[in-house]
Amino acid sequence: MPELPETETIARDLDAEVRGRRIVRVTVRRPDVLRATDETGLRRRLKGATIERVWRRAKLVVLDLSTSERLVVQPRFTGALLLDAGDLPDAERKFSTLDLALDDARRLHYRDIRRLGTVALMDPDRWASYSGGLGVEPLDPGFSTERLSGIIRRSRQAIKKVVMDQRHVVGIGNIYANEALWRAGILPSREARSLREPEVARLHQGIVSVLTESIAARGTSFRDYRDALGRRGSFVERLAVYGRAGEACRRCGDALVGTHEIDGRATVYCARCQR
Questions:
Q1: Which terminus of the chain has fewer CB atoms gathered within 10 Å of its CB, N or C?
Q2: Is the pLDDT of residue 223 over 90?
């Protein structure tokens, strides 16, 4: 957390709010979140730069700068990029690790309670190498049923682990893997290469539909996720399995099963609906 829908929401909001804004001051409060630069280097390279675009790649929020560098934020579990016009709650500002003062008097904070996320400053070559190691975007036209089938038929791993592997398909974490597999009627522990073509097609549709619907709902908020303006996402109200172990399946009514045996993370499924 955040996964693709949450980082997409943050990126869209920030692009509308800060595109064209110039960074006038950089304050680093917790340098342990920095990658590919240090505190001094970050200040020197960011001050005076203009934010030309904000977009998403995988689970990353990417700020394209006028210097041709990219500020790449990976929020992981408790990270968030929050705009502050002087009204950000003290409880949020308390955990600010990085503070960018903009030329319109607003500030952009990278808030991270547990500091498990990262902020990296990458030149074009480093970004190309890093991005090139990531898999296909599941909402791009190139992510077809055939492409997914090619990924799946090579693996003996549990299908849940395969769809969460960022080297194959990006942006899908634990929440949306659980949800997509329930929609497709596929048991999360199934060996990936055992899936038949109709099942792959259902899984493809499940992935695309759940991500698209969650973006429309501005993501899923349990505890720490907030969009760039500090608001919560509402997709939690539509989750069919994640966080619902022991409750009734919304398709058949049987009690949902919860386990940590597949990948050490919470997996919830319906033993009746998913095969």
A1: C
A2: no
Catalytic residue selected from 45, 56, 59, 226: 59
The single residue of 30, 76, 126, 265 carrying the catalytic annotation is 265
108 - beta bridge partners? 83, 100
- Give catalytic status of residue 111 as yes or no: no
Domain boundary among 132, 161, 178: 132
In the chain, alpha helices (H): 4-18, 39-46, 90-93, 124-132, 145-152, 159-164, 174-184, 197-216
Active site residue 191: no
Q: What angle do CA 95, 97, 100 make, to 5 degrees?
A: 115
In this predicted structure, what is the pLDDT of residue 1? 66
Q: Is 2 a catalytic residue?
A: yes
Domain region containing 228: 145-269
- Please, which residues bridge with residue 51 across strands? 65
Q: How many CB atoms lie within 10 A of CB 255?
A: 14
Do 19 and 127 lie in one domain? The reply is yes
Task: Dihedral sign for Cα 81, 113, 216, 127, please.
Answer: positive
Four-CA torsion 191, 196, 197, 199, nearest 10 degrees? -70
Catalytic, out of 3, 6, 179, 199:
3
The b/e string for 53-82 (b: 16+ C-beta within 10 A; e otherwise) is: ebbbbbbbbbbbbeeebbbbbbbbebbbbb
Number of domains in the chain: 2
- Catalytic residue at 179? no
